[in-house]
Amino acid sequence: MLTLRLTLGAPPLAQLLRLLLVFASAGVGLLLLTALSRAVEHPARPAGALPGLLWCLIPLAVTAHLAAALAEAEPGAPLRSGLDAAGLGPVRLPLLVARTAAIPCAVGGGLALLITVRGQGGADDGAPVVRLPGAAVELPLAQEALPLPAALTLLTAVPLLAALAAARAARTGTAATGATPCGQAPNRRRLTGTAALTAGLVLAAAGLLLAAYAVRHTPETARTGTPRPAELASSPLAAGWLLTALGLVLAGPALTSLAGRLLTAGRPGAVRLLAGRALARESALAGRPLAALGVVGAAALVAVRARLAETELPAPGPAGTLAAALVACCVGGVTLAAMARARHSRAPLAVLLERLGASRGTRRAVAAVRVAVVAAVFATPMLVAGLLAPLPTR
Amino acid sequence: MAAPPDDVLWARGLHYAYDGSPALRGVSFGIREGEVVAVSGPRGSGKTTLLRCLSGQTLPEAGEVWFNSSPVHTLGRAARERLRLHRFGWIDSSPRLVGELTAWENAALPLLLHGTGYRAARKQACAWLDRLDVGGCARKRPAALRQAERQRVAVARALVHSPAVLFADEPTAPLHRTDRAQVLRTLSAAARSHGITVVLATHDLTLTRTARTADETGAALADRVFALADGRRSRVPPAEELQNPARPEGTAACSLSV
Questions:
Q1: Digit-coded pLDDT (tens) for A278-313
Q2: What is the chain B residue with the closest CA to A180?
Q3: Is this complex's ipTM strictly greater than 0.90?
Q4: Interface check A156 vs B, CB under 8 A
């Protein structure tokens, strides 16, 4: 009942994230079932379905991140202290949070199952199977029955993973809020120094190089017509793109921190000083989600380039479109949650500036400088990666 | 109505309520230039609200506030912000330092907001930190300081732009007794040597006899005590109760060269 009440009484952002989590979980469930159906269709080559299953890991990871963002956003600080006073401390709170995150995911998984069995009256011979109406759903699902244990195993992976991610986020959140003198943001132990920046940029560059190599050295025999999406998914080209995305996301916090430090270089005035230091502090909170948003933007740019130019890139199938939309929406939700957290961590500063009598213009200037720098910092790698990412040309 | 000629800040008939629960019920207040006045009273007696009304952070529902013969209660929001930034200083019961700025940057924040140059602001802020015995912490972040040091950085921030009036809202609330006496004495000595008018809110003046007599509450350092109770002015404690040579044990050493 407590879970239900907390769910119903949550603020709009948490409700939005929860709704997103339901749909993300349903989408991941459908993608997993698609991979399973491919394996069922080709029982002779079960390894053929492995790349598809592995690609499902990306939406799965993003969904887990969304669950973690929900766990960080949802029991807000006042509610958290109230729950702590009532006996739901740092040990039991993660259990509660895991439950509140697993329920939307389970609902989403059920939704996916419902979509796949719709139109079929169930197994005729009473065997534990799920029948898939391939015509009704546009996903490349198998016409024949899926084994129910396998489908259920795949579908329970999503709520389980989300619950684990949420519990971990809630545990680190309670640990961090315990020791925050003078309104400091919880500092996570993350690589935010030059090491992370170098590693991320090297990874991104290596990814771009790998993709370029893959484009140039594709064997002539493979250049017969447009490759199928499944072939592209297991090619080094896709691996290169993935490596670039990973590098950019890893470099995100360090990039934000570096931009903040550069902003306060020289002899800064109040606006530059406050904006730069705030950026450096919030890099641990918002760096990765913003970088992920930049990667989504770069991917969109690549898609537009592929559509405009004459390339051998196949049109994304329904599964690819679903996965892309899912990842983009989840990254948007995670970024929104991170922005809300960063804004919340800036609240003491806003109170102080009002006490001191800083004018509204100054406060707006600080916010504007911060937004402009963040936009510049993440638009540049987005444009570079989006425009430089090699495409297979005809 | 004209202001009394010798009062730098005065208020008449202040009324204020938070969502219907009254905080101030007809308080009148006046303070002369260079005077140190302790506003005393238990928690919930309206001290903070009075200070907020006097400093222009909140507008009273009824009543007037005048500063240097000009009305504060009729000013717009921007003008009141300017007044706070240039003429008033504020110390809270918690230091409220910006965690990502160093101690001297925190202390120099009002100057930087004025538009003072970086070097001049740093010089002035470091001078004030030295006077308040926290010059060694100038390059540290607030997280690396002790609470008493943080509160002294907050005092330096309130004094750095030489305000006409300093509002201190229970500045010693989070401190131990030795640190309380030290912070209060440095604060009052600095204010007196620079001719700054101080409105000091303290809550423990009337609670215990030791607190009443010791200088850790700030009342002994004040020229006058303005007692509040339930949003109204109450009987001022007799002067002889405020004067007592007894000192708390283990008063921390501090320099009064401010």
A1: 998 888 888 899 999 999 999 999 888 888 876 666
A2: B143
A3: no
A4: no
